[in-house]
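User: I'm putting together notes for a lab meeting next week and I want to include a structural view of one of the chains we've been expressing. I don't have a solved structure, so I'd like a prediction I can at least talk through. The sequence is below, exactly as it appears in our construct file.
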Amino acid sequence: MELQEEKLSRAISAFSRRKILHLLADESMTVKDIAHQTKMSVSLASRHLKFLYDLGFLSVEKKYPHKYYSLKVKEIRNLLTVYDRVIQKL
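Assistant: Thanks for the context. Below is the predicted structure for the 90-residue chain, given as structure tokens.
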């Protein structure tokens, strides 16, 4: 259980990763779509996506010629909402 908590903490601790998770809560997206929406470079968005995928938070569906990323655990949307509210109150 402790490892899972550490994974969750690492996934949502960075503002950039939270932005990506928020986007993927609504729809599946390609790395280029995510980079455009977050104003990140494709390279940086790709690194964040790999990190989140390796932690087990994302699913990938390959539809030639693109990969579409989506949330593996949809309940993370609720956690992100609460997290954002707490951050605003600090």
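A couple of points you could mention at the meeting. The beta strands are 58-63, 66-71. The first strand starts at residue 58 and ends at 63.

User: Perfect, that's what I needed.
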